[in-house]
Specification:
By secondary structure, the chain is α+β, with helices and mostly antiparallel strands. It is about 15% helix and about 35% strand. The chain has 3 helices and 14 strands.
């Protein structure tokens, strides 16, 4: 399926571990080895008509939360690498989120789920391909989570979820 997807010009996100295993697959058309260099957190490589974005297995560990719910932020070099990765991904991910750390967005076709994993209430905004998302409609929410009356701001209490389209 990955090979057919790439042949149609798709862009695939893969982990560093999967990239190592794909290097052994002779069915992939590209000749460049899919390896990250020292200090690299992501890399884009062309494979046939498509692209593969390799994401370092270290990326999920770049920030962490300690026992007192404090968030360890990445140093400036890591933050810069994450920003570059976000810019690469935003070219084909239709929705991104303007929110504090530990608030996640899950695109699901024309719908988007936003989950607050923090201990605090948050207000956040969705962006669609570089422009603020307006005129959203709430499809589902956990108790207390809601789309504000302006149909643009998402309000989420701690550990809550809202789904909009």
């Amino acid at each position: 399926e990955l090979i057919r997807f790439l042949e149609r010009g798709g862009t695939a996100l893969v982990t560093e571990d999967l990239a190592h295993r794909l290097n052994q697959d002779p069915r992939l058309p590209g000749s460049a080895a899919m390896e990250l260099g020292s200090g690299e957190y992501f890399k884009t490589t062309d494979e046939g008509r498509g692209r593969i974005v390799i994401i370092s297995d270290a990326v999920p560990k770049l920030t962490y939360v300690d026992s007192e719910d404090r968030i360890e932020q990445p140093d400036p070099a890591l933050r810069s690498a994450l920003l570059s990765l976000r810019h690469t991904v935003e070219n084909f991910v239709p929705t991104s989120l303007d929110a504090p750390p530990r608030v996640a967005v899950f695109p699901m076709g024309g719908r988007v789920a936003v989950m607050n994993f923090t201990e605090l209430p948050v207000d956040c905004h969705l962006t669609r391909r570089g422009a603020p998302a307006t005129g959203l409609n709430q499809i589902f929410s956990s108790p207390g989570a809601a789309l504000a009356g302006n149909h643009e701001t998402l309000r989420l209490p701690p550990h809550s979820l809202v789904v909009v389209e």
